Amino acid sequence: MISIIGSTTYCSFEENPAKTDLYNASARVSRSATLDGGVSITHSGLVHGDRTLSIYATIDAATESTLKSINETDTLINLSCKEGYFSGVIDRLRIQGGAMTMTFLVKEKLSA
Question: Which pTM value belongs to this model?
Fold first, then answer.
């Protein structure tokens, strides 16, 4: 179950677990060539703000209308899922024939 919470409204729906990716994170890593032919690697850790959530679901018309409204009016939203409670933005939202694809860029994790 995923819930999207905007400033004035919210919606919930069941994600497609076979396609949905709720944990996708890249560490802050840089690699540089050194003059001796080797490499220098710097690992600066991982923060939740580096995460991108890819969500797939089949939604009804009411949920579609609410999601479109949140996407068009809110700049920062909250998302609740089994991985936790996050603030962030909808980067991409595609809805066609009830099939919904959303890319959510995490700003921060608010709770576990």
Answer: 0.82
